[in-house]
Design a protein that fits this description.
The protein contains 8 helices and 29 strands. It has 598 residues and is mainly β. The strands form 5 sheets. Strands 2-3-4-6-5 form a 5-stranded mixed beta barrel. It has a 5-stranded mixed β-barrel with strand order 8-9-10-12-11.
């Protein structure tokens, strides 16, 4: 068959069996690897061309890893293991080097369960706070917006107090408390320039060595544990290094010996100046200050407690504090929610919000008139919520005297009563005796009562309006009243005069009362006594801080001193002795000069 002529310009389509690339010749390939032309290709001849056709660099490295040659499997496992270690180390390094968000302390609640960084002044710290052997230190850090506690486990170096530091940790919230939690080195940073040149005196330093600061004027900064009324002449509370008791590292007892003249809020930051003394009876240190020596620091706002309708029983813990609550407003200025209610005392007329859900803020006070809690919006002034209408008081003592069985039959009834305190009641005492006359009388009607106590002295003969319920005291076989609330009315009884000639027995009738007596100050080894002019009789005195009568200008004068007559144990002589506490010379116009020398 004759062959067909092929047009050289004709384009020929390749078939499926024809490769696109040049067809390799087997003989050419063998001749390339058969260097000795013996017709065989051995291992050494192949090895001489091992690098041909293989890429280098990362691509070649990956090719060798993915090679399915059995001889390379062990090598691949080691390489993969090494890669996994490098990957994990890289991720850890990223996690360590990634800078957490730097926030102010007032925003920390918005970052719960996150790692954050805060900057501020280190004000206090304590190692192993519960004595359980933990490798832990608790620190208090403060910035202009708030205070936070850092709980640092496996802690490192600790800077001096007052150092400006940067802390990194997890934000933890539990049971109403908030803190940062960190472990190991790297949780706290500071530089040499952040260390203060003058180290401040802090509650933490005083707690470590109180003897070094005793009986000298001491200025401290801290947070108050409770609210104090403007007219409270004697108050006992604590000065802490954190506004929240549960987060405090240190708490120092503090006694205020005069009225501050303004509301002091729980959690408020203050600066105080006073004298640190050791109380042998209570086995504790106490800072004694005067009301005017409390200076509020307005860079920090005290927290406002939010009342919960489901926990009405716990509202008393916030008594006198600034609080906030949300409820439905109804007639009579009553807020209601979840079956409970509370009265409000607004500054402006809230009639436009009747029937609406509102949030109300003010000071939580007990209203005897309504036997209920009230919130007074006029937080800086005296509240009408605490005032009882005296005209509504009944003669309960007369009713008990005339018909005791009838009064006991109404044990669930509450009574508003006007009475007088028979004895002086010291702060925080829970027992009180009521009588129906301010002066001693042979036909006094006496009634014993129990109440929550107060942070000020109640003087003998003080008029009181009380809201009470009457019950039977089985232990003492007598009628007893439970004081739900009370209001001191009328003028406070003045100090009584006592005389050296009266003798100890007569003085005992004035025990715990305010008294006045004339004498000359005698200093016996740092202990002061008031001695009778021209005689040997003397009584120990406990002067107020910076007492006028202790001035060297008046040491040779016989002056009248005013204070509270107390009776204390004299264990060295196995006896009891009198002491005039919180005393100073009379200076009614407060000009710093005794009245008798003007």
């Amino acid at each position: 068959m004759a062959e067909e002529e092929i047009d050289p310009e004709m384009e020929i389509e390749p078939t499926m069996n024809e490769p696109d690339e040049k067809v390799q010749s087997i003989s050419d390939t063998l001749s390339k690897y058969d260097d000795n032309a013996d017709g065989k290709v051995d291992h050494f001849e192949i090895a001489a061309h091992d690098g041909e056709g293989k890429s280098g660099g990362i691509g070649g490295f990956i090719d060798r890893i993915l090679d399915d040659d059995p001889e390379l499997r062990g090598q691949r496992l080691w390489v993969m293991f090494s890669l996994s270690l490098i990957l994990v180390a890289g991720l850890n390094a990223y996690a360590m080097l990634r800078a957490p968000d730097l926030i102010t302390i007032d925003k920390i609640l918005e970052h719960k369960n996150e790692v954050v960084a805060v900057e501020g002044i280190l004000t206090s710290w304590v190692e192993d706070p519960y004595g359980s052997g933990d490798d832990r230190i608790d620190m208090i850090i403060e910035d202009p917006t708030g205070v936070i506690e850092l709980r640092w486990y496996r802690f490192g170096d600790i800077p001096p107090l007052g150092t400006y530091v940067k802390a990194i940790g997890d934000v933890i919230e539990y049971d109403g408390r908030l803190w940062l939690q960190a472990m190991g080195a790297g949780a706290l940073y500071w530089s040499v320039s952040d260390v203060p040149e003058v180290f401040p005196t802090t509650v933490s330093e005083v707690a470590a060595n109180p003897d070094n600061y005793s009986l000298t004027a001491l200025t401290l900064t801290g947070y108050l544990s409770k609210s104090i009324e403007p007219e409270a002449s004697f108050s006992s509370l604590y000065l802490g290094d954190h506004p929240n008791y549960g987060n405090s590292d240190h708490q120092m007892r503090m006694v205020i010996h005069s009225a501050p003249g303004k509301w002091l809020e729980a959690g408020q930051k203050v600066e105080v100046t006073g004298i640190l003394e050791y109380e042998q009876r209570e086995l504790r240190w106490t800072l004694h200050i005067e009301g005017p020596e409390i200076r509020t620091i307005n860079t920090y706002s005290p927290p406002i407690a939010k009342l919960d309708w489901s926990n009405v029983d716990t509202w008393s813990y916030s008594s006198n504090n600034m609080v906030e609550i949300t409820g439905t407003l109804s007639e009579g200025w009553i807020l209601s929610g979840e079956g409970a209610n509370i009265c409000i005392i607004p500054v402006a007329d809230p009639s436009a919000n009747l029937g609406k859900i509102i949030t109300f803020q003010g000071r939580l006070l007990w209203s005897p008139a309504q036997s209920n809690w009230c919130i007074d919006e006029a937080a800086d002034g005296s509240s009408s919520a605490g005032i009882v209408a005296v005209g509504d008081a009944v003669d309960l003592l007369g009713m008990i005297s005339a018909d005791p069985s009838g009064v006991l039959a109404n044990s669930s009834k509450t009574w508003v009563v006007k009475a007088y305190s028979k004895y002086s009641v010291e702060p925080f005492d829970t027992d009180i005796t009521f009588v129906d006359s301010p002066e001693y009388s042979s036909d006094w009607t006496t009634l014993y009562g129990s109440f929550a106590g107060t942070n000020t002295w109640i003087e003998a003969g003080q008029e009181i309006v009380i809201n009470v319920s009457v019950g039977w005291d089985d232990a003492n076989t007598r009628m007893n009243v439970m004081v739900n609330s009370f209001e001191l009315t009328g003028e406070t009884p003045g100090a009584a005069n006592i005389f050296w000639d009266d003798g100890a027995t007569q003085w005992s009738y004035s025990r715990n009362k305010l008294v006045m007596i004339s004498g000359q100050v005698v200093d016996e080894g740092g202990q002061y006594y008031l001695q009778r002019e021209g005689g040997t009789q003397k009584v120990r005195i406990d002067p107020v801080i910076q007492a006028i009568g202790l001035s060297s200008d008046y040491s040779d004068y016989t002056l009248t001193w005013k204070g509270r007559l107390l009776q204390e144990d004299d264990n060295s002589n196995m006896a009891q002795a009198f002491v005039i506490s919180n005393t100073d010379v009379l200076d009614e116009n407060t000009n710093g000069i005794p009245d008798e020398l003007e």
